[in-house]
Structures are given as structure tokens and as C-alpha cells.
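Appendix B, record 7
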Amino acid sequence: MRVFSSTCTFDYSWEEVSTNNWRKYCPWNDKATHVIAVDTLSRSIDPSTGVLRTERLITCSQTAPAWVLALLGGTNTSHVYETSIVDPASKRVTMSSTNLSWSNIISCRETVVYEPDVNASSPGHERTQFQQEAKITALCGGWQKIRTKIEEASVERFGQNAQRGREGFEDVLEMSRRAFREEGERREQMA
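C-alpha cells (predicted):
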């Protein structure tokens, strides 16, 4: 098993980040063009806590080499199962995802947490801490050396994709802030 982990701080409030998390795969994000569809499987709110629980199926196109597809079977489409918990009282979003495609060969279990960054925030300038961890395990039989190479290559690719994902989400956050500001200005002019 190999582990990828990353942290960063978004220069946006938790409210902005947690709201725009649902827009992460929208047309504003030109870094997520590999995402074909996001289907909500279930969504519920606990009436006593206000916690929102959502299950989604994310369908992506992948760029696996043709020889890998020929050797192992499969297609250029993959599926990821995601569960998210939004706790408005503690201001914490926790998302857990796992690959459904190729799961007999490799397991990728990712956890992402968004929380207010209380150490870097000030009134009127709130920031949100992002923590990401992915545990990648090659499940294929064979020599340990082969499994290690698969895991190492997967962690490297995951890191590249994670960086692109953060950049895309940053674009979504900026576009959303701009859209809300422009709408507010428009409403003020009409009043």
C-alpha cells in the first residue's frame, strides 16, 4: 500500500468552499473535463443534527494505455463511488471515495476534509483548510515488485491529478465569488 497526502488552504470561507464543492465538476472547471457525469444516488438530512449525507456515482473518462486495456480488459470509462458528510454545526465536510472500476486490480480509497482554518483566518478574511489522503493498494497477484511499481505509478498519477483538481476547484471558487458579487451589484443598481 502507498499513501498520497496533501494539504492546502483555500482563501475562501468554509461556507463558500462547502457550497461550491457541489459545483466542482461544472463547466467553470476546465481542469475536470474527464468527468462525464455525476449522479446523486441518495441524499438525506438528519433532522436532529442537520448533517447532510450524500452518495454519488462519478463517471470519468480515463487515459489508460491501450496495451493495459488489451491485457487486463476494461474500457476508457471508470466509476467512482463517493460519500460525503456535511456537518454545518462543526463546519466540516468529509468526503470518502473509492474506485469501482478496476477494483479487482487496484484499490484507491480517498478521504478529503474541508474545515475552517482558524489559525489563518481573520474577521472578513476567512480561509478553509483542505486535507486529502489516498490509500492505493495493488491487488493483482504476482511479484511484489510488480505490485510496488503499480502502486508507485498510481500514487504519482494521483498526485498530478490532485494538483490539477485543486487548481480547477480554485477556478470554480473564484468564478462563484465573481458571479455572486456581480449579481449583488446588479440588484443594488436595480433598487
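Remarks on this record: Residues 144-190 form the longest helix (47 residues). The first strand starts at residue 2 and ends at 10.
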